[in-house]
């Protein structure tokens, strides 16, 4: 699924949130099927390769990076803090890559924006400073082209979700 | 040292949404952010708000999942490696029911806990604060000043800035507001209708409820000594996400010290309390016959059928969750009600139920609060009896 097709399918509002200050979780699985899971610190649409790139901290994500490298399987969820609206994407040919300059800039912008979102939702500055990395050091990009998407407009178990496939 | 589930209990109070990835061999894992992962016991957690695909996965024999939880104050993060439980085991468990609104709940057995980030470390000095406050209570010669002393102390030493203490007055008067700090003094009647405070008074156990504007949390702790309930300590978390288990433990210990001080006054003054005590009230016995959903209140027949199922659902949600506000829209999702397809049937049955309560039961009322919305008023604590077959 091309990124433009994906965004058209999930709608402008949710598509815009993928690169905004949303909560991001990324999962894969080991060769024997056990899920690996990590928090991600930003996402960037790479127009050149028509892929998404999500960013994870190496120290927190060793199992996930190992599993993505071994299987190419990825599932990522993007959740708006205020509404709990979520978009879930999956792919089967994900790769682990080093960061490029555009990734680093996106990570810094994400950390600033997400920190503000958490503070406005009631968390203390001390909490957000502890939760989020200071910068892009030690991070990796996971590049993938979505092969399916599911939307949960009002939280995971509220209402019905809609699923799209290529 | 590898942490156990009990060591990270404060990460499991539902204050911070968690990430859950479920999977089975041969399938792409499903990852979602869920609103709550709650501590059940040293080996199990309850995951609330699973999406459909994940809820299905929990019940399969080879279900596996990884859960990521975060401490609400220190931001310490942990991953839990868990496995699902069969449907019958989950159903037997206290948490194995459906959450309000039909959200999926899964009970998981925890195989391993892994620390991801250490966070700021645990808050220091809670035990020292409890000791200091308990000593102040024990040494106070002026029992009338105890309510103010307690509220000031938990503000200064535990950072709980918004609170009040409701203590009983000599019968037959209602309990009265003895002290209030960091908030406008509310009317006693409004307090008694509060979900957390009302539950703490009915059950004689700590009770929590969400903040009034959807942020923060309310916590009510009964002041109990022996067989007497002296009142309730009530606090609100406004600037923070909620209260930790340590906070609750600290307040319970402080309320015990307060209760003992009030009781010692009773003994020393020939039973004349500075504030009086509240005697446990007579419970309202609600009996349901499952075969036709007929409901009896204190042994008297009230209603049956779908209206009976609705009343049972309302009262169980009130008793389990402290829910008092209901909407027709949410009720329609309750599969247990067995509602027929026609939309108007629900409204008709609610009208019938409201009328029957007005005619036959002084302790239960339904008050309309808006279009398709109503509030349940329960005047006595409830005792449920269910007759199957």
Supply the number of helical segments of chain B: 10
Rg result of chain A: 15 Å
Spatial order of the strands in the main sheet of chain A? 2-1-5-6-9-10
Number of strands of chain B: 19
Low-pLDDT parts of chain A are: none
User: Class by helix and strand content of chain B?
Assistant: alpha+beta
Q: What share of residues are in beta strands of chain A?
A: 25-35%
The mean pLDDT of chain A is 87
Explain what you see.
The complex is a heterodimer of chains A (166) and B (389). The longest helix of chain A has 20 residues, at 101-120. The N and C termini of chain A lie close together (5 Å). In chain A, β5 (74-79) and β6 (86-91) form a beta hairpin. In chain A, the strands form two sheets. Chain A has a six-stranded antiparallel beta sheet with strand order 2-1-5-6-9-10. Chain A is globular, with a radius of gyration of 15 Å. Chain A is an alpha+beta fold. In chain A, 48% of the residues are buried. Helix content of chain A is 31%, strand content 32%. By secondary structure, chain B is α+β, with helices and mostly antiparallel strands. Chain B is 30% helix and 32% strand. Chain B has ten helices and 19 strands. A seven-stranded antiparallel beta sheet of chain B has the order 2-1-5-6-7-4-3. A five-stranded antiparallel beta sheet of chain B has the order 9-8-12-11-10, sandwiched between helices. In chain B, α4 packs antiparallel against α7 (245-268) and α8 packs across α10. Chain B is flat and about 65 Å long.
């Amino acid at each position: 699924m091309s990124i433009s097709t994906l965004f058209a399918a999930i709608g402008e509002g949710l598509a815009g949130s993928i690169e905004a200050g949303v909560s991001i979780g990324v999962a894969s699985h080991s060769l024997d099927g056990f899920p690996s899971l990590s928090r991600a610190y930003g996402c960037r649409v790479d127009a050149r390769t028509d892929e998404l790139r999500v960013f994870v901290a190496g120290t927190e994500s060793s199992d996930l990076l190992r599993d993505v490298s071994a299987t190419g399987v990825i599932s990522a969820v993007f959740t708006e803090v205020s509404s709990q609206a979520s978009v879930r994407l999956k792919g089967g040919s994900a790769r682990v890559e080093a960061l490029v300059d555009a990734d680093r800039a996106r990570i810094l912008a994400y950390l600033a924006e997400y920190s503000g979102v958490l503070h406005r939702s009631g968390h203390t500055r001390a909490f957000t400073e502890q939760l989020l990395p200071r910068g892009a050091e030690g991070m990796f990009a996971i590049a993938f082209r979505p092969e399916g998407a599911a939307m949960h407009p009002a939280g995971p178990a509220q209402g019905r979700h809609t699923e799209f496939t290529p | 040292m590898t942490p156990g589930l009990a060591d990270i209990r404060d990460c499991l109070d539902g204050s911070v949404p968690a990430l859950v990835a479920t999977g089975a061999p041969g399938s792409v894992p499903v990852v979602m952010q869920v609103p709550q992962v709650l501590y059940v016991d040293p080996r199990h957690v309850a995951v609330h708000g699973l999406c459909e695909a994940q809820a299905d996965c929990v019940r399969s024999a080879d279900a596996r999942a990884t859960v990521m939880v975060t401490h609400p104050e220190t931001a310490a993060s942990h991953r839990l490696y868990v496995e699902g439980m069969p449907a019958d085991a989950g159903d037997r468990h206290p948490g194995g029911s459906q959450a309000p609104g039909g959200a999926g709940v899964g009970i998981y057995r925890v195989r391993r806990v892994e620390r991801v980030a250490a966070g700021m470390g645990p808050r220091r000095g809670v035990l020292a604060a409890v000791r200091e406050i308990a000593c102040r209570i024990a040494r106070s010669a002026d029992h009338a000043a105890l309510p103010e002393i307690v509220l000031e102390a938990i503000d200064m030493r535990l950072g709980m800035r918004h609170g009040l203490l409701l203590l009983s007055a000599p019968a037959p008067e209602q309990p009265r507001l003895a002290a209030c700090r960091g908030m406008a003094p509310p009317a006693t009647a409004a307090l008694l209708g509060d979900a957390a405070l009302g539950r703490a008074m009915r059950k004689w156990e700590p009770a929590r409820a969400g903040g009034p504007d959807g942020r923060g949390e309310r916590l009510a702790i009964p002041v109990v000594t022996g067989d007497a309930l002296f009142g309730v300590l009530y606090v609100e978390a406004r600037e923070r996400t909620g209260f930790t288990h340590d906070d609750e433990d600290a307040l319970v210990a402080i309320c015990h010290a307060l209760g003992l001080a009030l009781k010692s006054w009773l003994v020393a003054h020939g039973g004349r309390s500075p504030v009086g005590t509240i005697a446990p009230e007579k419970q309202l016995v609600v009996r349901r016959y499952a075969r036709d959903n007929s409901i009896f209140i204190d042994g008297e027949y009230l209603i049956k059928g779908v209206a009976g199922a609705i009343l049972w659902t309302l009262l169980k949600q009130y008793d389990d969750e402290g829910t008092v506000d209901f909407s027709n829209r949410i009720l329609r999702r309750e599969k247990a009600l067995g509602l027929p397809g026609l939309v108007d049937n629900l409204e008709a049955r609610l009208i019938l139920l409201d009328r029957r309560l007005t005619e036959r039961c002084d302790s239960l009322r339904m008050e309309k609060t808006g279009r398709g919305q109503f509030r349940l008023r329960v005047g006595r604590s409830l005792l449920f009896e269910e007759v199957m077959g």
